[in-house]
Design goal:
Elements lengths: L1 E2 H14 L5 H13 L13 E2 L1 H15 L4 H5 L1 E4 L2 E4 L9 H13 L7 E5 L5 H9 L6 E6 L2 H14 L8 E5 L10 E6 L32 H9 L4 E10 L5 H10 L3 E7 L5 E7 L6
Parallel strand pairs: 5-6, 5-8, 6-7, 8-9
Antiparallel strand pairs: 1-2, 3-4, 9-11, 10-11
Length: about 290
């Protein structure tokens, strides 16, 4: 048995040696996970001794983290918009940028929430479910679509945990290659599609490379799927309906141009918390000009 403070320091050193960013924070999360407590509670327990079974579990998690397995996969969950989502290798890990987009949209449509919502390329379901739950007095009809059945299974699991009878949200799940099998029209379509240029994938961090390739590869310029999406989206939107996209850090202008070609108006680029123009919002005309 060893005291928690000593284990925390040793584990932090191990993760630093293996090139893990924010090694101390990672170690705190892993230790709290093993102990079944909140991360900050560790600071009240520094003198406690860690039992051998817990130490064995921790060593295994440390080894996997040192080999590049994402922290969120090891913990099994990630917090997003105040909700706890299951996170594993079936879909992209929910990220702060996408959370920021969700917050922007909930605020933008607070006065008049959309009656129907489609989350294209839903992955874990974090964006679509958070939006549907973000207007609690309204509860739009929400469709979660993905080409990957594994990702949809994860979205279903998250929906089963988060959507209660009180929420009045009824999620629908559709396996579809973009709009191929999408029924009807929507008032808001959100999408965090693959946008990494194929040649850049090998330069991504080892953690990001653990995400499904299907969720990363956006073709030669990163915009193959975004281009297809914007071309087909207008026929699946009501007049005056909106699309909201998360794209790469330098893809905003090109995405805005694609939206204009597809017939959208009120095209705007919104910045993430780092000041990067990562989100593109656009609407269909309310009537033909």
């Amino acid at each position: 048995m060893k005291p928690l403070l000593e284990i925390l320091q040793a584990g932090t050193g191990y993760l630093e040696k293996h090139g893990v960013e924010e090694a101390r924070l990672n170690m705190e999360h892993l230790l709290a996970h093993v102990l079944g407590c909140r991360r900050l509670d560790i600071y009240l327990r520094f003198g406690e001794m860690l039992r051998e079974p817990d130490l064995t579990t921790l060593r295994n998690l440390l080894k996997r983290r040192g080999e590049g397995e994402p922290l969120q996969h090891l913990l099994g969950t990630v917090e997003f918009m105040g909700h706890e989502f299951i996170s594993d290798q079936r879909a992209l890990i929910p990220r702060p940028e996408t959370e920021h987009l969700a917050g922007l949209l909930i605020e933008k449509f607070a006065a008049t929430p959309p009656e129907s919502l489609l989350d294209m390329g839903t992955g874990s379901g974090c964006l679509g479910l958070s939006l549907a739950l973000g207007w609690p007095k309204h509860s739009p009809s929400v469709y979660l679509a993905d080409i990957s059945e594994e990702a949809l299974d994860l979205a279903r699991l998250n929906a089963s945990r988060l959507v209660t009878a009180d929420s009045k949200v009824t999620p629908h799940f559709v396996r579809s290659d973009l709009f191929e099998k999408i029924p009807g029209q929507f008032h808001l379509i959100v999408a965090n599609l693959p946008y990494i240029p194929a040649a850049d994938i090998n330069t991504l961090s080892r953690e990001v490379r653990r995400d499904p390739l299907l969720a990363l590869d956006g073709g030669p310029d990163g915009l193959d799927i975004v281009r297809r999406f914007l071309t087909d989206a207008p026929t699946h939107l009501h007049q005056g309906g909106w699309v909201a996209l998360e794209v790469g850090h330098d893809q905003g202008p090109a995405t805005m141009e694609l939206a204009a070609i597809a017939g959208f108006e009120s095209i705007a680029q919104e910045k993430d918390l780092q000041g990067i123009g990562r989100f593109v919002l656009a609407s269909l005309p309310t009537s033909s000009h």
